[in-house]
Amino acid sequence: xxxxxxxxxxxxxxxxxxxxxxxxxxxxxxxxxxxxxxxxxxxxxxxxxxxxxxxxxxxxxxxxxxxxxxxxxxxxxxxxxxxxxxxxxxxxxxxxxxxxxxxxxxxxxxxxxxxxxxxxxxxxxxxxxxxxxxxxxxxxxxxxxxxxxxxxxxxxxxxxxxxxxxxxxxxxxxxxxxxxxxxxxxxxxxxxxxxxxxxxxxxxxxxxxxxxxxxxxxxxxxxxxxxxxxxxxxxxxxxxxxxxxxxxxxxxxxxxxxxxxxxxxxxxxxxxxxxxxxxxxxxxxxxxxxxxxxxxxxxxxxxxxxxxxxxxxxxxxxxxxxxxxxxxxxxxxxxxxxxxxxxxxxxxxxxxxxxxxxxxxxxxxxxxxxxxxxxxxxxxxxxxxxxxxxxxxxxxxxxxxxxxxxxxxxxxxxxxxxxxxxxxxxxxxxxxxxxxxxxxxxxxxxxxxxxxxxxxxxxxxxxxxxxxxxxxxxxxxxxxxxxxxxxxxxxxxxxxxxxxxxxxxxxxxxxxxxx
Length: 515
Fold this sequence. Notes:
By secondary structure, the protein is of the alpha/beta class.
């Protein structure tokens, strides 16, 4: 008789396994699930050496899988001033006064998660209000949603913004910059912020990984943006420093470097899984490639940044290397181009199916083509909310195209496999915020809570051909679990954000316990 190392009793277990959708107890041996069933059935796996935890009806789910995250950037932002809970401009000033005490004379002060709606003044601070407490150091405070930041006069000076004209630079009645920058204008200051050292980024990444696990994410599909990340990941793997499972996705310009440095390091916590081709940009910056012009302009259709012939060569290289082909395509024209690349490249059936990242502006014809080519789609539900609430999608795309923006239910109904991620740090990390956003899409596109959870569990695992090991609670799979305070499928939508993680089981070990 094999006895368990850990047993969870008296739980509300949502297995995400259609054959046995619910259970009471789980027995774990080593890093794998030994048995799933009733309390009575699992009792037989307990001896004097078994650790037993009574859940008192708490909900257990497979550990969440985030299919789109920028881990190093998230870590970098965690080192910034956290403004998420500030309630007034005066409180922002107080936090800046405290932060400046630890900054040298030329050092930058960076902040994140600023929300003007949460401030008493119901507006962003001006550069003059920031200057009043930090006149000599550059200050940049990024907002919680949308591509928006507010800066002080020193930052305006360093970035030479006062001398520039262009969209996104907010000005007062006298024509002077107020300090508020929007959309592409935020890049003017971002490009002059000094880069952290590699050690600073490594330390920040370790912090980010801990925070990721704390919200119940036990697997992440990590999209790399820079060469320094390859060195950071290499060190994390070599020192057994990964507290979760990583499926790494690299841009094509780093493919050779990643293959040379990382492929041989693969283990049950790390896999160099895919490579991504960027076909267009983003809606907010008008760089997403559309078949017809943006509705509020007569000529602007965005731009393709990768032509079909180039894309086919890159797609063949990716699949020949034994990696999943992933294509970033936002606009309908870009999605059509991505599907043409997939159709005309040499398919490697030994790797996960090709996948389109974002796939924002769709139509019925594109849905049929995605299904026919057996392509999967990875979306970021919180981005949906941002496009409607911050970018005002109906104004920029028109009612017809706005209807087809991220049509999650239509994707489901077409039989297309859809997974979900956060796009953290650009959007909130918590998977339940993504579940909430997916549900609130509303109308004909509304999905159920359970369907939204599928995108963060079983569908996310299937997208990268890892459902044999994770994505559901079944015998033989990794013991990667999240224990929640309430059942997310039975609370009101507005209460989803109040559901918290009690503890996480990763690789058979209890971690991130609230007790």
